[in-house]
Amino acid sequence: MALLVIDDLAKTYDKVTALTGINLSVEAGEFVTLLGPSGSGKTTLLMSLAGFTTPSKGTIRLDGKDITHVDPEDRNFGFVFQGYALFPHLSVANNIAFSLRVRKWEKARIAARVAEMLSLVGLDNLAERKPRELSGGQQQRVAIARALAFGPRILLLDEPLSALDRMLRETMQKELRRLHRETGVTFVYVTHDQEEAIAMSDRIAVFNHGRIIEIGPPRGLYKKPSTRFVAGFLGENNFLSGQRADDDETMVEAFGTRFGSTYVKGRRERPGDSLTVWVRPEDIRIGQATGDEIGFRATVVENSFVGALERILLRTATGEEMVATLRSEVAVAAGQVVDCRIDPSAIGVLPN
Ligand code: ADP
Ligand code: MG
After folding, report:
1. Rounded to two decimals, what is the model's pTM?
2. Which of 81, 98, 211, 217 suits 110 as a labelling partner, its CA being 20 to 30 A distant?
3. SS3 of 3, please?
């Protein structure tokens, strides 16, 4: 049985529907991320799990027990928010000890646990500092240590890294993965950053307009999304117009070429029906197609150097633009007509 089971959860504020039909199960020890644009309902779901928001409908079960209306403090969940919400007048050690004192732990046990937590987040020598004497990254480590100190069943994290700069964010992403691994605590993590979600999660639930659009492991969602929203939200994509071939319903025509396609989700198209074809920039290669690769020609519009990769804007025979990212050693120049190739498994076809 899953540790946490959310069944048909909904939340409406006056006229705003923040969540509808949320179904999600989280296994013990999993790292699950709620990913979606701003306003898609992620925080509302996290607050419902925490017990700070009362759902309008549906149930939340922990170990099979209905906790939908259980008080926050009786859920034994830890929280980490975007603003660290540390107690400004308390030292680092006392911030971490706070939830243990509330739980009436013995003094010696508290001291041992605080030391253990400080070491876990690498702040051993800052125990006596006040929050204002710490950097943003250090404050967030304290917030995480405080949330984990009492041994929560689940740690809820709402955009905990969004206030940090890019370098620090990447360091903290690795830190959080490590903490997840070492503590074995179940993490439910909210972010609007798709790269962060992909890098950190065992599974991602993609939110839009208060609904979960798709749930799955990062690789599966990235490689084989079932919806245009997920394809576009998780990483860069080219969406191109195509159509079912008039003379052969197994074939799709797009960007001046035709290819067989079995990957069609949704309703069945008829010959001549228009379709959307998508392909990730990194799956477009320069060179003659071999084997069952899809070959086509395109004109280089623009070429920019972006570190390890070269980012190339192509114009296809149908006049559409397409972005390709290539390893930098491939040299192409604007105006050049190039042979391109794509592995058929990298092409997605979605009904319009
Ligand atoms: P996210 O965390 O994905 O940005 P939220 O869960 O904060 O999204 O918000 C989802 C929707 O619910 C938004 O339209 C938001 O304006 C609305 N909402 C959130 N909290 C409240 C509230 N307390 N009162 C009214 N509307 C709210
Ligand atoms: Mg939010």
Report:
1. 0.90
2. 81
3. coil
Sequence-ordered list of residues with C-beta below 8 angstroms from that of 347, at least 6 positions apart, any chain: 259, 261, 263, 277, 278, 279, 283, 294
How far apart, in whole angstroms, are the C-alpha atoms of residue 36 and residue 85? 24
The DSSP 8-state label assigned to residue 315 in this structure reads: E
Tell me the best of 34, 44, 47 to mutate to test the pocket of ligand 1, counting ligand atoms within 8 Å of each CB and taking the most: 44
d(CA 72, CA 55): 13
Q: Identify the residues whose C-beta falls under 6 Å from ligand 1.
A: 13, 16, 18, 36, 38-44
> With a cut of 0.90, is the ipTM above it?
yes
Instruction: Give the residue, by CA position, lying nearest to ligand 1 atom 24.
Output: 13
> Which of 43, 192, 233 to probe ligand 1 with, by most ligand atoms within 8 A of CB?
43
